[in-house]
Amino acid sequence: MSIEKANTAWLAQSKQADYRRIVGSAKYDDNAASHYSWDSSVVHHDEVQPGDIIAIWDEFLIGVSVIEHIEVGDGVKTTTACRACKRANVVRRKRKLPPYRCDDCHEEFDEPVYGEKEVRTYRSSHAQAWIDLEGLLDGKALRSLCVHPKEQNSFRRLRLDDFRTALEGATDGNLLHILDETSKQMVGGSEGHVVRPVRVRVGQSGFRAKLLSEYGALCAVTGFAPRSVLEACHLYSYAKVGKHEDQGGLLLRRDIHRLFDQGLIAVDESGAVDVAEEIRAYPAYGDLHGKVLQVVLTSKQRKWVRSHWLEWRGR
Questions:
Q1: Which residues contact residue 285 at a Cβ distance below 8 angstroms, ignoring those fewer than 6 apart?
Q2: Is 232 exposed, middle or buried (0-12, 13-18, 19+ CB in 10 A)?
Q3: What is the SS3 assignment for 126?
Q4: pLDDT tens profile 200-235
Q5: What pLDDT score was predicted for residue 196?
Q6: Which of 58, 73, 74 is nearest to 12 (CA)?
Q7: 258 with 222: CB under 8 angstroms?
Q8: Which residues sit opposite 37 in a β-bridge?
Q9: Which of 22-26, 57-61, 140-144 comes out lowest in average pLDDT?
Q10: Is 262 helix (H, G, I), strand (E, B) or coil?
Q11: DSSP character string of 216-246
């Protein structure tokens, strides 16, 4: 079987941070950029397949990839249940007492009822095509893109075409072509065999991490900002070059990144910021006109910003 695009996408909730809903007390082995674990108590647990797109989120989107392989096993899971109604919809609260609450009957208690059950365990691998999209879409936007927006499950099926459109609208290009290519190669082999993807990894997560290590949480145009709003901006066309050039990027606040990609903000070789006249009426941007970058450009970066300047300013 061969396909042109992945046709199934899942929204998976990260359990690395404060995962409040208590289905069992066992800790999951998760790393958003490489693997995700679940078991047979999770709705849709056996519907997720290699070749499917997986989008991982907490309060915001973290990133997307294609599932390469799923390791299946058996295990025993510690379960928790409400002391009143015996259902498993128990939530742990950090700032209220008693610390546990049932979302079904609203009973509050100090400890849930513990038990054990046998489960099938699943662990996906998806590092090959991982794209770091930290903070790109918020939880409300992501839930609205699900087949059943009000569903509360760890795995939720996404409306792939709408998800694709949302990503394209929030970025400067079609990121999912990388995932489509990976998925196509994985399911395009002969039956019973898994085709390993060729080199399609974009390394965006590493590219951003490298910039954060070099500059800290610093937007090169506006100054210090929360990490969640900073993006790795290529100073050249990544679509044309196809790789992350050394010294080829800067950290920019998300809105500044969009304006830079659209040529509404440019930088000359001296590091001075030029804001297009059409948006100078907005104080948040007009006040930046003529300011000097918060970082010192290297000779390579000056070359890249000169090319960008010539593309959009023509002089």
A1: 259, 264, 265, 275, 279
A2: buried
A3: coil
A4: 334 455 677 778 878 989 999 999 998 888 888 988
A5: 41
A6: 58
A7: no
A8: 123
A9: 22-26
A10: coil
A11: -SEETTTEE--GGGEEEEESS-HHHH-S--T
